[in-house]
Amino acid sequence: MINDLNQKTKKSFYNLKKCPGCGDLAKIQNDQKLCSRCFRIVNYNDFKRAVKVIEPKLLINSLGKNIRCYFVVIDIFNFQINQIKKILEDIDPKILKILLLNKMDLLEKSSRISKFSNKINLQLKMIKNLKILPICALKGDKHMNTLANLIIHNNRDSAFIGLENAGKSTIIKHLLNQKNIVHNLISSRFPGTTSNLIKFKINDLEIIDTPGIRDENSLRVFADDPFHKWWTFKDNINPRIFQLDGGQSLFFGNLIRLNFISGTKTSFTIYTNPNINVFRTKTINAKRVNERSKTILKWPLQDCQYVNDNFTQTIVLKNNLNKVDLEISDIGVISLISKGQTITINSPLKNPIKVRNSLF
Ligand SMILES: Nc1nc2c(ncn2[C@@H]2O[C@H](COP(=O)(O)OP(=O)(O)OP(=O)(O)O)[C@@H](O)[C@H]2O)c(=O)[nH]1
Ligand SMILES: [Mg+2]
Q: Are 47 and 188 in contact (CB under 8 A)?
C-alpha cells in the first residue's frame, strides 16, 4: 500500500518527456519546464557534458528525407576546413547547403568579413549547391535578417548542423524571437548543450536544431572544470604578433607549446582567445619556464606546471612564400608565411594542428 502510494506520487511528480531546452528525453518535474541539466546550466552556470558522440553521417541520415536545406554553422575562429568539407560532402549534393560563418563580431575589423568569406568560398568551390553567409547570431545584424528572409523565401524544411558550440541554438533562438514564437531552447558557452533533435515551426516550415558534432581534435576537453568559463568570450580578437627566430617557443598557457625548430625569422600572427596567455621563451629553457611563471602556467590545467611533452607533432612548411594558417581546435589560428620552416607542437594530443591556405 505504502509502495503503491509512493509510486503514484513519484509518477505524478516526474514525467519522462523531451526537454524543450536540450531535446533530451529526461525526467522533468511537473512544475518545471526544463530537465535538471538545463535548469542547472541556466540558473547556476553548471554543466554536465552529454556523453553521446555524434557521427556527422549518422546525424544527417537521422534527419530524414524531408530536409531540403542544411545550414552548416561554423565558429569562424574554431573549425578545421577539412572537417567542414567532409561534413558538407556527407550531404546529398542535390540539396542546398548554406554555410553560416558565425561569430563575425570576433573579427577585429568588419572590413575583413567579405575577404574571409571570399577566401573560404574559394577553398570549398568543389562543393555543389553551396552558399556562404557571414552572420553574428549574438548581436543580430543585417545578415541575420537576410538569413530569416532566406528561410522563408526558400520555403524548405531546414536543419542546422555543425560542431559543438558553433552557435546553432543561438541562431535558432534569434529567428524564433524575431517571429515572437514562444520557446524554451537553451544555448550556453558549454560544448554539447543541445543533446538531441529539437523541431520548431516557422511559417509552417520545419526548422531542426541538432546536437553539435564533437571535434576529435578538441583541446578544450583537457581543461580542468574551473577554467571552462574562460573559454568563450565576447571581445574582438585582436591579433597578437610575435617575431620568432629558430630555437624559440611559444606557450599557450600550459596546454600547448609551439617550438620554432628551424627557418628564417618569421612573424607569427595569432588569433586566439584573449584569456589565453601566450608567451615566448627559448626552447632550451622551455622546461624550466614554470620556475619563473608559475601563475601564468596554471591555466587551463590546474596541477600541471608545464606543457606535457607526451606528443610531438612535426610540421614542415613548403618553401613557396604562400600565407598559411595553422588551425588549432579550441585555441584559434596562427597565420604565417610559408618559407620551409620546421615547427613542432607539444600537446596532450597526437596531431592537433592542421595547415590550410590562409583565410586572413
Ligand atoms: N561572440 C559571439 N558568440 C556567439 C555568437 N553566437 C553564439 N555565440 C556564443 O557561442 C556559445 C555557444 O552557443 P550555442 O548556441 O549554445 O552553440 P551550439 O552550436 O548550439 O552548441 P551545442 O548545442 O553545444 O552544439 C554561447 O556562449 C553563445 O553565446 C556570435 O555571433 N558571437
Ligand atoms: Mg545547441
A: yes
Ligand 1 atom closest to the Cα of residue 189 is 27
**What is the distance in A from the centroid of ligand 2 to the CA of 254?**
29
Ligand 1, from 168, 170, 197, 208: best to mutate by most atoms within 8 Å of Cβ?
A: 170
Distances (CA, A) of 278 to 259, 288, 338: 13, 16, 21
Strand ordering across the sheet containing 266-272 = 240-244, 266-272, 332-339, 319-328, 353-357
In order along the chain (360 residues), what is the average pLDDT of each group of 10 residues? 45 77 88 89 78 83 92 96 96 96 89 91 96 93 90 90 96 95 94 93 94 90 74 83 96 90 97 88 81 58 66 96 96 97 94 96
Tell me, yes or no, if the pTM score tops 0.90. yes
Question: What residue type is assigned to position 258 of the chain?
Answer: L
Q: How far is the CA of 307 from the centre of ligand 1 (A)?
A: 28
Q: Which atom of ligand 1 is nearest to the CA of 190?
A: 24
**Whole-number Cα distances in Å, 178 to 22, 44, 117, 135, 156:** 20, 27, 26, 15, 19
Domains of the chain, each with CATH number or no CATH? 56-209 (3.40.50.300), 222-357 (no CATH)
CA distance 77 to 327: 9
pLDDT digits (tens, 9 = 90+) for 278-333: 989 999 988 776 555 555 555 676 666 666 667 999 999 999 999 999 999 999 99
In whole angstroms, give the CA distance from residue 257 to residue 353: 12
Q: How far is the CA of 198 from the centre of ligand 2 (A)?
A: 10
CA distance 11 to 233: 42
pLDDT, tens digit (0-9, with 9 covering 90-100), for 204-230: 899 999 999 988 888 888 877 767 777
How many whole angstroms separate alpha carbon 12 and alpha carbon 312?
56
